[in-house]
Amino acid sequence: MSTIELSSDSDDQILPELRHPYLQKFDRWCDSVGDRINPILVKETRQALQSRQFLLTFSLILLAAVGWTIGGSLSLMPNIYYQPSAPRMMLGFYLVLALPMILVVPVAAFRSMESEMEDGTMELLSISVLSPWQIVLGKLGSALLQMMLYLLILFPCMAYAYTLRGVEMSLVMGLISSLFLGALQLTVLGIFLATVARSRALRTLNLLALVATVFGSAWGFSLAAFELLFYGFNTSAEEIAFIAYTSIGGVVVISILLLTVAAALLKPESENRSTSIRLALLVMTGFVLSAMVIGVYNFTSDLDVPMVSYVSGTLFLTVLWTIASSMIVAEGNHMTARIRRELPSSFAGRLCLTWLTPGPTSGLVFVTSVIWLLAGIHYLGLSWIEENVRGLSMGGSASWMIARISLLVPSYIICGLVLSRGLMHLIRLSHNPRPIFGIAMLAIVAIFSSLIPYSMQLHFNEYRQINYDATWQKSNWIFTMMYADNERLVTSDVILSITAAGVSGTIIAWAAAARLTRPGKIATPENVLKAQKLRAQDRVVA
After folding, report:
1. Which of 38, 150, 489, 492 is least surrounded by CB atoms within 10 angstroms?
2. What pLDDT, in 10s, does the model give residues 464-514?
3. 389's torsion region: left (phi>0), alpha (psi -120 to 50) or beta?
4. How far apart are CA 477 and CA 489, in angstroms?
5. Domain coordinates of the chain in residue numbers?
6. What is the 8-class DSSP label of residue 389?
7. What is the pTM of this model?
8. DSSP state letters, 87-134
9. How would you write 14-37 as a 3-class SS string?
10. Are 355 and 275 in contact (CB under 8 A)?
């Protein structure tokens, strides 16, 4: 029998004749997968699993699970043998699982990202071979792994509670799924809030806001679990499917938007930050519209579901695009050479894709087009609901009333955005504010456009009670919307004049952006191409 010398240089030299070829392939596959794993995910997972916070949380969950298993079972004696006892036990285990997933993991993700921003290591990561998306997804992946570990701890306990009878498997899966989705959404929110904060004071404020949000969410999830476990959930299969679609899809699209913004903020200012955010906004808008269509079309026999889904979706899109538009038109107007190298070069590309490029001019065209498109969809959708949903009667003037709302709201928003764009242009002549300042600017425009005409009419009426007067109050969007259903005060001429102002603002925005469709792409220098090639090779190696 010969002696085989063992070498420490490579594991492949250890008894090669005894290794099965399938095991060798599996080892090589594991090595390749390990090399491709996000290095931020590996680093964050190692740090999280070695931290005192995880050790303490993990230990407390184990103690709480064992304690509730013993204490809860003893408290139900002797009825536990012949009566359904699962709801009470399941609620206890649900609370034990919910507290770390909702309270601990999102705050830990916030603190992890905040420490990177505060210690200055984020600047080092931004100039490395790691992309901003790898950084953001690595933080999120580490948090998800912690959630899965907490879930694995409580899974046998929940299985034990289920055997005590009294709850359905669908309800248990629904509770766990909703808890996971809620924790995921809060974790994404924590990463987003840590990224948008640039100063210590703002980070502290965001942390307080996150803590308040997670405590409120924990209370809400606990109360919902109590109601569902002890009183049930009497809904049809179609309604459950609709709730599942809106919940899962909503978490996905909101997470995509928040993570896109977070990744964009981690990019240098010389890179394109706007295009991905605008695409994420379009994805979210498409999902909300699809949820509205499903809610309206599949539940025409029930008045509540179509109206709730339609009204909530309309309000959400209005608020979303008002806030997003105010920041888009407040972007900086400087376009770096790096961004110009990525501009579309063909005529069709310049005509269709220019409005996704950074800048307030292209942004104003983008948001005005989307706002008018949503206004048309609103008119068609509400008209269809009025004709097809049972139990809804809006009278003979319903179509005209729908048209009024569909014209007034986008016109006022577009006029405010055009004025905000002009004021931000004047401010940027001497200052360089962040795009979030556009929200404050639009709010100022909205407040003064209502306050000034109201004060003037009140003054000329000697400060006595006044009624709506279109001569003074056309720009007062609050007063006009309050009396939009009164055709005697808000006449057709008033509607048309306000709509004309909105259309004029749109034409001004489009005319100012005409030069953007001209060829503006520049060639990429050879040294930049070589640097990009080396950077791509380094990423593959890393």
Report:
1. 492
2. 888 888 888 888 999 898 888 888 888 888 899 999 999 999 999 888 887
3. beta
4. 14
5. 36-233, 268-542
6. S
7. 0.83
8. HHHHHHHHHHHHIIIIIIHHHHHHHHHHHHHHHTHHHHHHTSS--HHH
9. CCHHHCCHHHHHHHHHHHHHHHHC
10. no
